[in-house]
Design brief:
Blueprint: H1 8-27, H2 32-39, H3 43-51, H4 58-68, H5 72-76, H6 80-100, E1 102-108, E2 111-117
């Protein structure tokens, strides 16, 4: 370990990388110990990676990406968590839109058509 001072940008990157690592690890339902065993470090080292206290070596980054089955670009992308949060918000909005619509079945000359009907307690956007 070197004694060089850590720049703010490096600290910020480590925190963002740690959040990405934690997300992908939990998505695969792995423990910190699973990853530690795979890349041959202690689980405490993986804890430090996830907390942004330090970053793994390039070789261990490569091994992690293979083990987690993600691209290195995604694992190291500082904007990944922001894009994920935006995606989740959009999904929640889409689900909300579907819940707000009640469909009414009408028959016109034997042909069934479905048209949206306003809900009584919510406004249309």
């Amino acid at each position: 370990m070197s004694n060089r001072p850590i720049k703010d940008t490096e600290t910020e990157f480590n925190k963002l990388f740690g959040a990405n690592l934690k997300h992908f690890r939990k998505a695969k339902k792995y423990t910190q110990t699973n990853i530690a065993n795979e890349i041959e470090v202690s689980f405490q080292a993986v804890q430090k990676y996830e907390k942004g206290m330090c970053s793994p070596s390039p070789f261990n980054l490569h091994k992690m990406s293979i083990f987690l089955e993600v691209k290195l670009d995604d694992l190291m992308d500082p904007r990944f968590m922001d894009r994920l949060a935006k995606f989740k918000e959009e999904q929640a909005f889409r689900e909300m839109d579907l819940d707000d619509v009640i469909y009414e079945k009408t028959t016109i000359k034997g042909t069934a058509t479905i048209k949206p009907k306003r809900t009584q307690d919510k406004e249309w956007l």
